[in-house]
Amino acid sequence: MRTCEYDGPPLTVARSHPWTDAVASAAHRYYDLRATPSLIRTSLEDFVPWSRYGAILGFYSLLEWLNGDASPFETNDCAFTAPHANDQASVPQALMCSGRVMVLYRELRLNASAGDVAWLKDELHLAVAKLDVELHSGLVGTTIVPVRYLALPSGEQAGQELMVSFWAWGDTEAELMENLERVVAGLFAALRHVAAEA
Question: With CB atoms counted within 10 Å of each terminal CB, which end of the chain scores lower, N or C?
């Protein structure tokens, strides 16, 4: 599967973990999915309308694992942009969709180490690139973003997390969602592989 990495100006505005405000809508809020995993399949407003598709059910499973006891990671945000007309001139398919999930180490002090977060990013790229190499209508990207970890002692709160973005394309909604299902399955497998190495 193809991967890419954010190559723009450094991101400097740190978001808090846990966060308390949302740019898109005041109705959006932070959910501690480790404490309340039942909210994964009912409260993610971008995903719920598309829950009839295996891609979204697979994403729910990914979140359940990331926030479950077997994972060294957790999440603190995710989003999904529903199928719409493709605006990427380099991709021939008519439709696209995209999403993201914010991944951080459960042991919060590791997120304060730029080296540990960079390792996570690099290992995820290596793992994704080895999976589903025939899929050309999907992409996984990473961006390291600054975070202020409120549970850490004052003066030690500055850190980072990994924003994992994903895209899929198709000429019909069914094809698009099948490709998204492959992207999510590959991402899930890659994260499990990285977790085993962490």
Answer: C
Joined together, the tokens standing for residue 182 give 């492959």
- Beta strands 138-149 and 2-5 are parallel
The radius of gyration computed from the CA coordinates of the chain, to the nearest angstrom, equals 16
Per-residue pLDDT of 93-118, as tens digits, reads 999 999 999 999 999 999 999 999 99
Instruction: Give this prediction's pTM.
Output: 0.94
What mean pLDDT value characterizes the chain? 94
Run of H or E including 170: strand 158-170
Long-range residue pairs from 89-92, CB within 8 A, at least 24 positions apart, any chain: 91/137, 91/169
d(CA 49, CA 51): 6
Beta bridge partners of 159: 147
